[in-house]
Amino acid sequence: MESCSLVDTAGAAALCSTPGGRRRGRAGSAARFFNCPGSSREHGVSASYSIGRMLSGVRSAARRKLFRSEPEWMGVNWPDSTGHHWWTTLENNFVLEASEDEYSGVVVDADRLPADGAAFARSLAASLSYWQSVGKKGVWLKLPVDRSEFVPIAVKEGFKYHHAEEAYLMLTYWIPDEPSLLPANASHQVGVGGFVINDQMEVLVVQEKYRGWALDGVWKLPTGFIQESEEIYTGAIREVQEETGVDTEFVDVVAFRHAHNVAFQKSDLFFICMLRPLSSAIKIDETEIQAAKWMPLEEFVKQPFIQEDHMFQKIMDICIQRLRKCYCGLTAHNVVSKFDGRQSTLYYNVGEPEDVNCDAA
Amino acid sequence: MESCSLVDTAGAAALCSTPGGRRRGRAGSAARFFNCPGSSREHGVSASYSIGRMLSGVRSAARRKLFRSEPEWMGVNWPDSTGHHWWTTLENNFVLEASEDEYSGVVVDADRLPADGAAFARSLAASLSYWQSVGKKGVWLKLPVDRSEFVPIAVKEGFKYHHAEEAYLMLTYWIPDEPSLLPANASHQVGVGGFVINDQMEVLVVQEKYRGWALDGVWKLPTGFIQESEEIYTGAIREVQEETGVDTEFVDVVAFRHAHNVAFQKSDLFFICMLRPLSSAIKIDETEIQAAKWMPLEEFVKQPFIQEDHMFQKIMDICIQRLRKCYCGLTAHNVVSKFDGRQSTLYYNVGEPEDVNCDAA
Predict the structure, then answer these.
(1) Which residue of B has its CA nearest to A223?
(2) ipTM above 0.85, yes or no
(3) How many CB pairs under 8 A join A and B?
(4) Closest CA to B106 of B13, B178, B10, B171
């Protein structure tokens, strides 16, 4: 694999479209390519500051806002407006601890939330009022699952669900009186399929345990979803190894398919990978695979199910053309961002077909 | 665009890994390629049944379970165990309305949840006990945002967050005493960049309004995130049109980049698309673009920022090779699933470079 020290445009890009960032699509675009190198990996938060720092210089505005209609706001007996005491009271008791991001956004500190629902409700209302008074835009509120009792409180305050992982629910609040520019959550799942063929022109195929009627008796390529933060090329190798026990090395991506409204109405990208076998002994994963074997390519392609399926025939055409070196696949090249040091992979061709007289797929 | 009636493997695949389905990665693989054509588009739910049908044949088992430690279970004065009345009571008052999926899973009907928290808590406990007694595995509980007060109740009952959209939070519960086989949520966001060059070898470039210091004065390609259910090729055309006002047509994907731990720790796939200009007049989107113009390719590539960035230099090399027809990009081909009729797009090469003596990228 070629390895160099490069800019990870995706990293920089997407980081900038995280908390407090911009909405997917149009606005999301501004966040891409060599953008905001200062972004942190964790939250896209570029700067953190104390509430004290946050208060400086904006006290009168905040005060006007906070007391506009509540002289004895939230039952607290505030001193006269010349005193410093009420700011200390606000700072110590009401405004949630938070960091700012590069888009005038606020990221609430999930580790320093109030102890109980009543305090949280009071702080959330005060904080929104305060953040609005100081010109903040997007608010990111991550509620750990063990604070789930805060969810209805945040929703009542006007927060919207953004995304969730097993450990937390992320909610957002867009303060300005204009369309939200906050980015959308993840939109795709990614799958891989491995085309593994040996010197005897036998393809590595499997029969699945959990299959619809249409797959009865059908031998297919090993396939699966890539795991969190997994590379396409390593995911394909892993799937083949797990399902069949055969070790392989990645050659290239020969094609990919894009479908929509799939799982949870999200989209699906599926990459067909050419893999070179490094071993031949088969040991199936019995939790999901019924059987696996090396099958003559001709026999594999002649299966009625495949004969009736133009898409799979096309994929097989491509794989066969690739075998004959009449087709350009995309090989993987590791690159590292000089901004955040994270690795990413650029997939592209490294050469034209060797036999140019052949009929490329 | 080639158009045929084909199997949408992604669609069938991912649908089978939805509610009640299998975990991402290994198990997820079983759900891919020509699998379970019977899956519904909405939830991957293949069959719906009434609680009455669900009860038949398993009453004694369920009863044993339900009354194991609660002779006067939940304060209800049940008749003796030979009577039918308590089943009617259970059916009418406690077990949540649900559908089953293809993996012995249960999908709770989000439109028929109990009216209040107390009733929900009671029904959830009773339902879990009941579903366990009848051998159910994964439980999918979608809570609309206007039922957010049910979230802490479900969490207390042992449900885990799975994913969230603005309108709802999806929670899951894996009943068997073994590792969960439920699929993961979406893992990727997808971005596009448009390389648009005219007959005078001028590239369409933009300067962004919201950019980090590193981008000051830098002219870059129009880029952005694709929108929900949007194609890569239409997303690239849209981004270019929105940012610059220039109409284009898609030629091919020349390369793509994969990065991890980006927005919300999800991964990012970024596709570089070659587009052919259909107009030249520039009209920028002032909400996010500072300026746009046609810039001589040579001048564009000579920008210090690009000169210092090997990755972008590689991308430009590829685009230039593609212009010289020395490079194979991946073109888009519409395909339709013969199972569910949904369209998907297969990206692959349609030919080898025309000039094989050139040095391909």
Answers:
(1) B29
(2) no
(3) 503
(4) B171
Please answer whether residues B342 and A263 qualify as being in contact, where contact means their C-beta atoms are separated by less than 8 angstroms.
no
State whether B13 and A335 contact (CB < 8 Å).
no
Along the 361 residues of chain B, how does pLDDT read in single tens digits? 332 222 233 333 322 222 333 333 333 333 333 222 223 333 332 222 223 333 333 333 333 333 333 434 444 444 444 445 555 556 556 899 999 988 889 999 999 999 999 999 999 999 999 999 999 999 999 999 999 999 999 999 999 999 999 999 999 999 999 888 888 899 999 999 999 999 999 999 999 887 666 677 889 999 999 998 999 999 999 999 999 999 999 999 999 999 998 888 899 999 999 999 999 999 998 888 999 999 999 999 999 888 888 788 888 999 998 888 888 889 999 886 555 556 789 999 876 545 444 544 3
Alpha carbons B47 and B93: distance in angstroms, whole number:
23
Q: Where are the domains of chain A?
A: 40-174, 188-360
Q: Are B183 and A263 in contact (CB under 8 A)?
A: yes
Q: Which among B257, B335, B361 has CB closest to A344?
A: B257
Interface check for B47 against chain A (CB to CB < 8 A): the answer is no
What topology is assigned to A188-360 in CATH? Nucleoside Triphosphate Pyrophosphohydrolase (3.90.79)
Q: Which residues of B touch A152 (CB under 8 A)?
A: 148-149, 151-152
Instruction: Note whether A268 contacts B213, CB cutoff 8 Å.
Output: no
Question: Cβ(A26)–Cβ(B224) under 8 Å?
Answer: yes
Interatomic CA distance for residues A78 and A81, integer angstroms: 8
Please indicate whether, in this complex, the C-beta atoms of A258 and B10 are within 8 angstroms of each other: yes
Question: Is the CB of B183 less than 8 angstroms away from the CB of A263?
Answer: yes
> CB distance B188–A189 less than 8 Å?
yes
Q: How far apart are CA B95 and CA B49, in angstroms?
A: 13
Q: Which of A192, A198, A154 minimizes the C-alpha distance to A271?
A: A192
Collapse the DSSP code of B252 into the 3-class scheme (helix H, G, I; strand E, B; otherwise coil) and give the result. strand
Joined together, the tokens standing for residue A187 give 């939109």
Domain B40-174 homologous superfamily, CATH:
Gcn5-related N-acetyltransferase (GNAT) (3.40.630.30)
Residues of A in contact with B189 (CB under 8 A): 14, 24, 183-188
Beta-carbon contacts of B183 under 8 Å, excluding residues fewer than 6 positions away, are: A225, A263, B17, B18, B21, B22, B23, B24, B28, B31
The shares of helix, strand and coil residues in chain B, as percent rounded to the nearest 5, are 30, 25, 40
Q: How close is the nearest chain A Cα to the Cα of B139, in Å?
A: 15
Q: Taking a C-beta distance cutoff of 8 angstroms, is the pair B223, A32 a contact?
A: yes
* Angle between helix B117-133 and B85-93 (nearest 10): 120
